[in-house]
Predict the structure.
Amino acid sequence: MYDRFFRHPFMSRHGLAELDDRSVVEALCRVELALAQVEEEAGILPEGVSAQLAAVILPAHFDMDALAADVGKGGNVAIPFVKQAKAMLPEELRRYFHHGATSQDIVDSALMLLIKPRLEASLKQLALLRGGYGKLMRRYRDLPMIGRTLMQQAVPMTFGVKVAQWAAAMLKAEERLENVVQHGLFVQFGGPVGVHTGLGEHGLALMHALAGKLGLATPMLPWHTDRQPLLALMAALDGVAVGAEKNALDIALMCQSEVGELSEPAQEGVGGSSSMPHKSNPIGCGRIRAAARHIHAHYGVISTSGAQPLERGLGEWHAEWAPLLDAVVELEGALELLAALIDGLQVHEEAMARNLSHSLEALEQRPLAEYLGSSGAQVDRVLDALAVQTTTA
Amino acid sequence: MYDRFFRHPFMSRHGLAELDDRSVVEALCRVELALAQVEEEAGILPEGVSAQLAAVILPAHFDMDALAADVGKGGNVAIPFVKQAKAMLPEELRRYFHHGATSQDIVDSALMLLIKPRLEASLKQLALLRGGYGKLMRRYRDLPMIGRTLMQQAVPMTFGVKVAQWAAAMLKAEERLENVVQHGLFVQFGGPVGVHTGLGEHGLALMHALAGKLGLATPMLPWHTDRQPLLALMAALDGVAVGAEKNALDIALMCQSEVGELSEPAQEGVGGSSSMPHKSNPIGCGRIRAAARHIHAHYGVISTSGAQPLERGLGEWHAEWAPLLDAVVELEGALELLAALIDGLQVHEEAMARNLSHSLEALEQRPLAEYLGSSGAQVDRVLDALAVQTTTA
Amino acid sequence: MYDRFFRHPFMSRHGLAELDDRSVVEALCRVELALAQVEEEAGILPEGVSAQLAAVILPAHFDMDALAADVGKGGNVAIPFVKQAKAMLPEELRRYFHHGATSQDIVDSALMLLIKPRLEASLKQLALLRGGYGKLMRRYRDLPMIGRTLMQQAVPMTFGVKVAQWAAAMLKAEERLENVVQHGLFVQFGGPVGVHTGLGEHGLALMHALAGKLGLATPMLPWHTDRQPLLALMAALDGVAVGAEKNALDIALMCQSEVGELSEPAQEGVGGSSSMPHKSNPIGCGRIRAAARHIHAHYGVISTSGAQPLERGLGEWHAEWAPLLDAVVELEGALELLAALIDGLQVHEEAMARNLSHSLEALEQRPLAEYLGSSGAQVDRVLDALAVQTTTA
Amino acid sequence: MYDRFFRHPFMSRHGLAELDDRSVVEALCRVELALAQVEEEAGILPEGVSAQLAAVILPAHFDMDALAADVGKGGNVAIPFVKQAKAMLPEELRRYFHHGATSQDIVDSALMLLIKPRLEASLKQLALLRGGYGKLMRRYRDLPMIGRTLMQQAVPMTFGVKVAQWAAAMLKAEERLENVVQHGLFVQFGGPVGVHTGLGEHGLALMHALAGKLGLATPMLPWHTDRQPLLALMAALDGVAVGAEKNALDIALMCQSEVGELSEPAQEGVGGSSSMPHKSNPIGCGRIRAAARHIHAHYGVISTSGAQPLERGLGEWHAEWAPLLDAVVELEGALELLAALIDGLQVHEEAMARNLSHSLEALEQRPLAEYLGSSGAQVDRVLDALAVQTTTA
């Protein structure tokens, strides 16, 4: 598919590999089987049934092509998945499979299972990034350079404080993301209209038990048409994306030929041009910026589809899946690129000095140190915060 | 201006009145004078200077038309504001005004001051709304109705649990908004390039003191081109907007002539038509939905403008103001409408019974109670959560 | 209102003045009175009635504050407008006013009347802009400079061809806008549900006659919930906005202190800074870029509200008004700024030569002319196109 | 990949199959070989060279996995593609391959080649759709039903005129799309910075010849950072998407259990539920609505990435690919669904009569025919327009 050439270059290769067909079916199985387990533990299903189901319902048994071919008919993958699963089961077990559940229970929960490790991978990249920022801040704490506002040279600052700014923004964004990963990836379980039809008072307890079994958070209520959890998640992703995008924009501007203060890490074959062999393009920055633009738009889909009618959306829910999954893998990719970029960033001190000297002449010759103001103190403050973050993580 | 007829009907009238020209200038004055105070307290300005400034720099002294006419020249209101202010001052005081500050310090801080009371007003509406939800939930806890998925009748639920769903979504959205209002409205103070040029080590302490004086939160660093605070704020607004929009969508669907389960509160002259006197339109729902659509787009501006170059945006920053202020007043308006709507909502039990009976025939005649599952328990859970929220608030 | 300081600086001052309260009421009157005229001409209203209505229904007689206060009740301005108008009329004339019309007929048609002269004003700015581009292209047809791709110096081109690129893009965008202004500003007239209730077969003929009377285009059918006309209009506005934004981005990049190839026209008091008197900011570019960002988001509202239910939107329609009007006045403002910017653009030939020389060393010393390729021919081609456009306009 | 379950169900299966890896490489080959041909014909390459290249550069020879693996390094597929191609060639032919071209020439042109047949397939679906609308209009020209505004019953209309409204909107949208397909799919050819470096005056003629060879339109100038062509294309796609989305929304509303005026075509296994066997969901409408929501967001990426810096974007260009291709295949899928839906739409006349009768009581008992106004005339007008369209197509 065209994706390989036109979408995947802006995604995490590793993340994509982890989100293949097979993983989707595994996640679907995991949700259904965990449900059977908790229903058995609650005495709703006969003893032993969940083990019997687990012995048959194996990801490898599913016909992936048939699944893919049938999604359109009912509009979601759970319908053909349940159909295939039931066909694998002996007649007497069938009614115990998917018991009390609705498609959205399975799909939403599986999506949360699928994205959780990817978000954790993003958090890992953010930790690496903190390491990279810290290294740069310590090394360049007092390296003066010219600050620039409205795309014009303004007054001096240090390169250290510029990195501190990048890091401080990312710390905030990371905190929001971490909060969502810790507390905001909710199990979905409500049955046909979100009231645990046929399960009586057990419903909420089952939802809680299922969350525990799957390592997901328990929501106050089922959230079939309450998309606040997704909004908070996507907003957190978008925040990190903006942090990465701003960092990439700054680096790209400082890499400009006439500015020359930074270069992307030199890497065999990276940043080349098909027509100009002498060029070195900050293509890492370009890829991060492309991914971030996609993520902004993905948030928009989630937001404009957030108001879902009555007990299940008709298109609003369905519209969420691709933007959600794409955003997760695009963010992971952008962070991999950014972490590598920061780790190997080439800092051209002589260019910083040269550019600074032009402006210093224009300024009324205050001593440089006066201009630098709180630059050093800001670096120290962020280094402290990084240290705390690293210790507690 | 056309706004009165085409934008303001989707905004809070009270909120708008509080955000007039004069309030903007008051906020600008407040920031500048608080800055002078903290600088005097830090020994940076001579004793008594801040009081001298405060005696002259009065909102009423500013020429609003001249201010408005000159914003374009420098691109922001702080430039003509500072110019007018200095012209009011005796020569010897001029250099103490706006000391160490840059336009963005004043504008960003003033914006936070302007929106804070409006967000608090929104939180107040959310508290009223909780009251309204609670009343409906208690009254209709066990009223059966048909649940609907993908725009089709599905299986029974209660009207109480539907309200509980609305309420649970809003509680989450409210929590995010409250968190931002409590901890996320930051003072801005960094000087020309965000390093407190000329203020030496005092910079960060001044920023902290200024925040305290203005009742705003202290950021880790100045955030001139780190727009994470705005992203978090706008995402919180958008979350509440989606909550209101979903609620309005459900009500509008249930108000449809053929469904007839709800009506908007009857109110003299509201919901009329220019051509069909017999109609009663759920215009409150319509206005809420319009406002929410605007707010989604406003988030988009903040998000796609989030990556701002180097030490100050060139257009990215400027693009934020109108969407931010609009979103705040639109949300306040939507919540006023929704709180009134919920408070006076007309519930037509007989229509619910009629619609339900059609589906019950199609279902295999399980007893109704079995269908209702956890409906009552869900209502109770949300009532408990509302009680906690109301007590702690 | 805060708009004066935070929204209007990114709009056309003249355009705004032309879109005040009074103009809105005038447009509403004009639509209603033209309708009465065509209905009288068709023999639907008694002879002389339209003149009698016109004698009473004068914009100056409307109570603007009452109008504004009442818009919310029915959700649109036509409802209180019709109410006030009827109250002005003697009993026997009342039923002839707004005859066969619905609110949306009046509001949509009035909006088209309001924006038409503004779009024509934008087309006038685009004509000025063509003049400016032509002047620059002729003057700098052969001035070599370095081309830059992915934010890096690449190979030589001319400044003339860069301007030709800006101009060619704008020609395309202008053509789309002109096409909409000529053929795409449609009258709205369909009555309560778009089928000319009560007017029998006259309906479509009345719609056509009304369009003629108002100088608007006749649609195939009423377009109450067919928003294709608005989509085409907004897409055209967005196209011009992107053209202006790209031009502003290029200028801002070339104005950077280290590049120095262009400056905005020097203008007393423009581009100053509140903290750094030595700076000259390309604030025209910044304002254009802010306006364009808003316009992109406005398109999004129109697009995500484009699918409107059945015979009238509930919020979807209402959401269109502010984005539409804002976009029109923001575009007019952006074009005024850009036309002035291009007209007075300062071109620093020595900086272009200096920047070029750095790259020429890196290139393998082909003769410069070889690099320039079709630069001159491209300029000539665009100059020809501009000449044609200017002649036919 | 997860796409099969979460993205592809909202796309054309056939369209996707036509846009696989292989097609991408074929399109890349086609562009490069056509370029060699026109350069040979212009005497720039030695006679016979293009045939020699064509003998070696065969899609089947490319290592797709290596291509996909290397896209990230330079940021676009043309770089590894050219590298692989040159490695296939004997030393003496290498400099004739990709002569005078830049990556963006190859990628943009190949994208146009890839999407052209898909857009033609969409036009074909639109023609089918016209047939379906015509059939419904003729059959139900005079079938009365209740019109509904603001989600409330209003006054009568006919089902025929409702279909006419859908059709009239689509005709406009189709016209815009057809115009783009006929005149707006441009070849890209400009060399490194868009001035045909090294090709002298030949550049523009080569661009024209290349367009002819590839069956694409010739632009005025190369459009590397003039994205007006893409904006017009995406706006046209979005217009058709809105048309389909509005149609799907209306159908979904009319399919509601309590309204019951329409049903989706009955189709084995379609519209089922995993938990409620009695339900029939209008899942075609849901899928169309999901696709349309994606397309709106894709337009947003193109629009907010439209202003690209200087002679090549850094991320802005790269961000376009996935949204463009996705939008094309999503639109094709939505139209396939809609054409089938309209073709087999089940119209429940008795439900229309029942719903109408409720409102007629409320109305003041005018004869029904008076209410219907121009309904029949509107149908006839659209039928005429469809006939013209069908004849000329």
